[in-house]
Amino acid sequence: SDDSADVTFPDPPVPEPNDFQFDVFGRSATDVYACGDRGAMFHFDGTEWTTVDMGTGRGITTIWGLPGDGTLYAVGHGGNIWRNTGGSWGGMTSGISQDLFGLGQFEGKIHAVGDKGAILRLNGSSWGGVPSQMWILDENGGPTDTLSTNEDLASIVAVNEFFLGGAFNDPDFDDERIGRYGTKGMVLASADPADFPTPDPPDPAWTDLPDWILRPISGEQTSPYEWVYAMTSDPADYDRNLMGTSEGWLFRMTEDLGKKVWAKFYPSVTSDPDRGIRDIWLDVAGNIYMVTDAGTVVYQTFDYNFTEATGERVTLYDGPVSLHGIWGTGPDNLFIVGNMDETLLMASHDQGTHDFSLTEVKLEFPASKAADVV
């Protein structure tokens, strides 16, 4: 007989959160923080790692602070933001519930950015939103499309002094949008009214000028999505402003006819177009260290030029899982985090021989707790 109607199926188990780390950042060799899933935050004092209770069970995605300033900030899922002064973390009110992924200084102001075009600006001790209207411009500087940050951006994940980076929803994508599919990498710049002279004769398109200019990053996207995942920032030296994408392209900022533009390094850092650059760290000399979704640590000298056959690019490490963050006090003292269960890597690189030594550090993640919003 058919007894299937009497069978009771149990609810599927709730998947356990991962014990992965998303970012690492420090002030010195004796003051380093790493963050990740479950609200995990760890501190290194030069000798040992200790766990910091951040009061949340949600992921913490990014840690950042201004050079020469003792204050640190961290952001995470659910709109969480924290500030660290004097070695102690305290929650701040963001006013939003979107996940936050990026932190940094943009045009002299600290910004936090995240899901669905979330952009917050710090004014004093308060976070506030910003205007949302965007334009995409044609070759003559005229608008080809009028967009909104909170409707047309998939997410913003990186902050640079001159640009914000992430992805927007590709209007030409006609397949099912799942996760990142159907997105195009972009950078976002503040609109300068001086770039929009009053047309003669008057044109209605120019009566409501935008707050932002959206620039797609390339015309050669090879996968069904592309994101700007990583940026370094230096307001004084264009050469130290770098950008990395999910397809493995590395760009350096340059100036052309008074405009800041991104020049691409060839070839791609990774062979898989879906497993590109997650984070970038520069040493004092301008040599570049990158970690990738392919699990690699890639070193590139400051003078690398593929077309002119100068400098070098070397893969120092090829691991089994995605790597998300890298920071160091020098080539001999690097910290690397990623999708390694309860594990952080401490590394040393000899730039002459390219010897690369690694030490695995085990970190005890906090037990699961109810997700909350600070």
Number of helices, counting only DSSP H or I runs of 4 residues or more: 1
Gross morphology: globular
Give the strand content.
over 45%
Major β-sheet annotation? 6 strands, mixed
Give the helix level as a range of percent: under 10%
Q: Give average pLDDT, whole number.
A: 91
N- to C-terminal distance: 56 Å
Which structural class best describes the helix and strand composition? mainly beta
How is the quaternary structure best described? single chain
Care to count the β-strands? 30
Biggest sheet strand line-up? 14-13-18-17-16-15
Q: What Rg is obtained from the alpha carbons, in whole angstroms? A: 22 Å
The unreliable regions are 1-5, 370-374
How does the SSE layout of this entry go?
Layout (H helix, E strand, L loop, with lengths): L20 E8 L2 E6 L4 E4 L4 E3 L8 E5 L7 E5 L4 E5 L2 E5 L7 E7 L2 E6 L4 E5 L2 E4 L3 E5 L5 E6 H4 E7 L4 E6 L13 E8 L21 E5 L11 E4 L10 E4 L4 E7 L2 E7 L11 E6 L5 E5 L3 E5 L12 E6 L4 E8 L2 E6 L4 E7 L6 E7 L12
Parallel strand pairs: 13-18
Antiparallel strand pairs: 1-2, 2-3, 3-4, 5-6, 6-7, 7-8, 9-10, 10-11, 11-12, 13-14, 15-16, 16-17, 17-18, 19-20, 20-21, 21-22, 23-24, 24-25, 25-26, 27-28, 28-29, 29-30
